[in-house]
Amino acid sequence: MLTVKKVLNNNVLIAEHPEYAEVILIGKGLGFGKKPGEEVAGEVAEKFFVLKEEKEQEQYKQLLDYVDEAFIGLMNDVISMIEERFKLRLHEHIHIALTDHLFYAIKRIHQGFDIKNPFLPETELAYPDEFEMAQTIIQHMNQELKINIPEGEIGFVALHIHSALTRRPLQEVNRHTRLISELVGVIESSLGISIDRKDVDYLRLVRHLHHAIERINKEKYEDNQEALKSVLQSEYPVCYNLSWKLIKIMQQALRKTVPDAEAVYLTLHLQRLSKQ
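Request: output the structure for the sequence above.
Response:
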């Protein structure tokens, strides 16, 4: 049995849980007439989730001031879909971050604003599973809300999902996505090419950059490619020099040392792209 701590509205309340301390309970009419200290049966709640941190609880309370209860219910269904798909309990902040993001995105759509996402291809390549889940979510919301959410929103939702799954701040995930897009732009400009975003070599490059950034951040780079480096420097000087230009951009953005071995991998990717 749970004890009511605070009623947020007729359908949402904060309760004391014997195992999780404070939890958020959601259910039609669940909070109606309830007072702090009263007992409430957990099974009558349609949804329940844990907001352990006080900051998260306060932000969720603020969310309820401007997001209607029907949308809160829809978002909790969406978050349950994500957890079921990945068989993982998401970081609690997604209840606030994704709800707030989609609420305002849909509000802008109703106001006639378009949603553009210049990083959509890079996001799909970097986080394919999250992107696929985001497509399912947007399709579900289109059906439920009788709306047509632009494709660009799929990328933003995918980043929120990745952030919650990996427990990495959304700002960091966004920075890395923008960095990859910037690096691709430098490659096109330097080589004087326009890269086909559906080309398999482009897919390999973006996935390599994504994994390279993760390894650099975790400082798990143990490769030594000295012998191959001198060969590539001689055989493909343009691509080799460009690889170092990209490395300097990465170092500045990540504020981490990028190992020399990265020049080898980038040169090989650049050489394949330059033949398009």
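The CA atoms of residues 25 and 48 lie 5 Å apart.
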